[in-house]
Amino acid sequence: MLEENEDVLVGARRELEEETGLIFKDFYLVHTEQPNPSAEWISYTVVTTGYAGGIQNKKLDVGERMRYLEYLLMSMLKRSGSFFYVSTKIC
């Protein structure tokens, strides 16, 4: 969730580090959509590159569990045939 007035890429970096403990150098906003026009909710798809390591202190909310998978982009494209279909599944 973005904080009030927070930049999308800054929020994506913060959320990724808090919830997975992973640190990446580069963040790219590749897709934005409003899934339900009657709700003020925007969905952002962000792709990261440049893995820089991990931190140990995850900050998960009560009841949250996190699992992540590492994929090469070309591998994902071969599986799905559609970048945006797969990218919405990327954490």
Short description:
This protein has helices at residues 8-20, 73-80, 83-87; strands spanning 22-33, 43-54. The protein is of the alpha+beta class. The protein has one domain.
Q: How would you describe this structure to a colleague?
A:
The relative contact order is 0.20. This protein has helices at residues 8-20, 73-80, 83-87, and strands at residues 22-33, 43-54. It is built from three helices and two strands. The chain has one domain (8-87). Residues 83-91 have low confidence and may be disordered. It is an alpha+beta fold and 91 residues long. A two-stranded antiparallel sheet has the order 1-2.
What is the alpha-carbon Rg in Å?
14 Å
- Work out the count of structural domains: 1
By helix and strand content, what is the structural category? alpha+beta
* Order of strands in the sheet with most strands: 1-2
Number of E-type strands: 2
Distance from first to last alpha carbon: 13 Å
The percentage helix is 25-40%
Largest sheet: 2 strands, antiparallel
Order of helical and strand elements? HEEHH
Low-confidence stretches: 83-91
β content, as a range? 25-35%
Shape designation: globular
Average residue-wise pLDDT: 76
Number of helices: 3
